[in-house]
Amino acid sequence: MDPAIALDLIQNVVDEYQDKVLDDYQRFGILVRVKNGRAQIGPALKKRNQHVESEYYHPAGDRRNNRGWVTVKRDSEGIRKDLELFQILLDQGAGEMEMHRFFEEHPAILMEATMSIPLSHSPSFARPRGNKPDFALSPILGPHRDKMIGLMELKGPTEKNLTQGFHPGFTAKVHRAVDQVRDYARFLRDPANVSAILRAFGYIPDDPQLAVLIGRAPGNTADGEVWKQR
With contact defined as beta carbons under 8 Å apart, do 83 and 37 qualify? Predict the structure, then answer.
């Protein structure tokens, strides 16, 4: 079979499945809309019975905590709109909160970059109370035997990554962000946080993968070499 034909057939199957999921969501009181090439869902109504489920929706496994609209399906127009908005935020030097809100509303960008599902501000640890990573990255196909999870700390794109001088390296801001996400990994091992972790993921993960998303890629060869060395 011609590869282009095979890809079209696969895309049709995926589109049909996603349409059925969205129809099912609507029946359960979850808001669904299509706008600018994006199919989006809004907050669900209160789940009155955790044991009532349908072919595509399992209330007890619903980890969503979105407060606004979230894009779950995009066509070519939707992808173009997302990229245009992302570029505008970068060019205008958007802050951490603006970038966080963008990734919440358009999770596909982080999903495609990490092959995982981004969960915003989750889990909210009991000890130390109020601490929570910017994003947890849950395996896109669910936990396997290794029970992986990712933790990501997000900073703004205007933050400086590298120092200058005879011994250039990462800035204090980068080191603080690394320390921060390492602390979150330590909090995952605290027995006081078991309930919060189960609420967030549905399982207890093994040692997490850690990431910091900060600043922009080096703009010249010299900085690029320092970046690779460090």
Answer: no
| Token output for 18 | 């996603």
What's the one-letter identity of residue 106? H
* Structure-block tokens of residue 194: 């078991």
Sign of CA dihedral 176, 180, 183, 185: negative
The residues facing 211 across adjacent strands are 152
pLDDT tens-digit profile of 138-152?
987 777 666 889 999
Q: Do 123 and 208 contact (CB within 8 A), yes or no?
A: no
Share of the chain above pLDDT 70, in %: 90
Reported pTM = 0.74
112-164 pLDDT, tens digit each: 888 888 999 999 999 999 899 999 999 877 776 668 899 999 999 999 999 98
Phi and psi angles of residue 70, each rounded to the nearest 5 degrees, phi first: -130, 130
Cα–Cα distance, 61 to 78 (Å, whole number):
28
Q: Inter-axis angle of helices 76-91 and 96-105, to 10 degrees? A: 170
AA identity, residue 229: Q
The pLDDT of residue 32 is: 86
Sorted by sequence, the CB contacts under 8 Å of residue 229 that are 6+ apart come out as none
**Distance between CA atoms of residues 224 and 217, nearest Å:** 8
pLDDT band (50, 70, 90) for residue 177: very high
* Single-letter amino acid, residue 76: S
